[in-house]
Design a protein that fits this description.
The protein is an alpha/beta fold. The protein folds into 2 domains: 172 residues, 3-Layer(aba) Sandwich (Carbamate kinase), CATH 3.40.1160; 146 residues, 2-Layer Sandwich (VC0802-like). Helices cover 34% and strands 27% of the residues. It has an 8-stranded mixed β-sheet, sandwiched between helices. Strands 14-15-13-16-18-17 form a 6-stranded antiparallel β-sheet. The longest helix has 16 residues. The protein is globular and about 80 Å long. It starts with a strand and ends in a 6-residue tail after the last helix. Bound molecules: aspartic acid and magnesium ion. The site of aspartic acid has 12 residues, from loops.
Length: 406
């Protein structure tokens, strides 16, 4: 017997038939002798509609009232899932966040879970009752309902699994696991049996949309075993595990890409102390997240070029910030491009093996793909390339690292 948290995303509870399907899945896990808590998202598209309603009624920003509205999506699904479970003859009950409670800070719209009072849930589960808990919401330290930021149900589920000391947190979604690359682009992509938390974290922040980044951090911190699997098939999923729990002994576990990048270059900035701070200070003040940064030493000791990347949606603001700080920074010209994509190879095997980056550069060179910018961490190498080469680059790298399905 195990204690399990099962999380179902928006598409898994997208209509009545799917909600009944979820109930059957939960029943099978329960009938196998497990203690079960279920975490659900809102029905797919529901949160988007609620956000639109808020925006349509008022242009004022009121995060507390926003939370009151958007948190209702998950209240609907916990009730419906509990009903569907009871229909199958199971004992079940829905638990709105304040009835447990799940406590968070009062940062409305982007709250962080602080604690979960699991005693009432544990008692219910011991009685053989299935606890149905909403993702995405909590009770803030101001006593009002909060939401955790879009995609936050993953984090709710992992946090609940940690608090319940569950044996595993199963995240049911519309893909059947974590793949070596986006299977819609790389047809030879394979499903991984296991991936480490660190690789998953890189993958999530590099564009793979399987799990919300914060949920991965949470799982890593509390050592929750997380499994990603499909609610529409019986295939085993992908286990997200600690590095010591062993992963397949590939050097590289996957190729990720992020299309929402933009590149900014300052031509001829002075090569002297303080210049980088004068560029990135105003960007940070404007809350613009900078990703890759490249600067070389100057040849003549006077000036050099500096390139950095930002999210595409921040490009306009970044250019405005740099332009209005032109006098303080000092540069000749500002150029930018939004038709770029970041492609990354990820793998904990890199820690102990040489030549991973070389293989990437050679494979891209063989296809005539120019690398504009490079950045690395201990377990990933990222390059910025022209967007038009995205598919070619992904497929080429997938083959180059021996990841193609047989
Ligand atoms: N329903 C919320 C959203 O759409 C939370 C989630 O699905 O994870 O962002
Ligand atoms: Mg989601």
């Amino acid at each position: 017997m195990a204690r399990l948290v099962l999380k179902f995303g928006g598409t898994s509870v997208g209509d009545v038939a799917r909600i009944k399907n979820v109930a059957r899945r939960v029943k099978a896990v329960y009938d196998a002798g497990n203690e079960v808590a279920v975490v659900v998202s809102a029905m797919s598209g529901q949160t988007d509609s609620l956000v639109k309603l808020v925006d349509a009624v008022s242009s004022k920003i009121d995060d507390a009232e926003y939370d009151v509205v958007v948190a209702t999506g998950e209240l609907v699904t916990i009730g419906l899932v509990a009903l569907a479970l009871k229909d199958l003859g199971l004992k079940a009950r829905s638990w709105p966040s304040w009835e447990i409670p799940i406590r968070s800070d009062a940062a409305h719209g982007k709250a962080r879970i602080q604690s979960i009072e699991v005693q009432p849930l544990l008692e219910a589960m011991k009685r053989g009752e299935i606890a149905v808990v909403p993702g995405f919401q909590a009770m803030g330290s101001d006593g009002r309902i909060t939401t955790l930021g879009r995609g936050g149900s993953d984090t709710s589920a992992v946090a609940l699994a940690a608090a319940l000391k569950a044996d595993r947190c199963d995240i049911y979604t519309d893909v059947d696991g974590v793949y070596t690359a986006d299977p819609r682009i790389v047809t030879k992509a394979r499903k991984l049996d296991k991936i480490t938390f660190e690789e998953m974290l890189e993958a999530a922040s590099l564009g793979a949309k399987v799990l919300q980044t914060r949920s991965v951090l949470m799982g890593m911190k509390h050592k929750v075993v997380v499994q990603v699997l499909s609610s529409f098939s019986d295939a085993p999923g992908t286990l997200v595990v600690d590095e010591e729990d062993g992963v397949e002994d590939e050097l590289v576990s996957g190729i990720a890409y992020s299309p929402n990048e933009a590149k900014v270059t300052l031509i001829k900035v002075a090569d002297k102390p303080g210049v980088a701070a004068r560029i990135f200070g105003p960007l940070s003040d404007a809350n613009i997240n900078v990703d890759m940064i490249v600067q070389n030493v100057s040849d003549d000791g006077k000036s050099t070029d500096l390139t950095f990347t930002v999210g595409r949606s921040d490009l306009k603001r970044a250019l405005q910030v740099i332009e209005s700080a032109k006098a303080q920074i000092g540069y000749e010209r500002l150029v930018s491009a939004a038709d770029v994509v970041k492609v990354s190879v990820i793998g904990v095997g890199m820690r102990s093996h040489a030549g991973i980056a070389y293989r990437m550069f050679q494979a891209l060179a063989d296809k005539g793909i120019n690398i504009q910018t490079i950045s690395t961490s201990e377990i990933k190498v990222s390059v910025l390339i022209a967007e038009e080469y995205t598919e070619l680059a992904l497929r080429t790298l997938h083959t180059a690292y021996g990841l193609d399905a047989a």
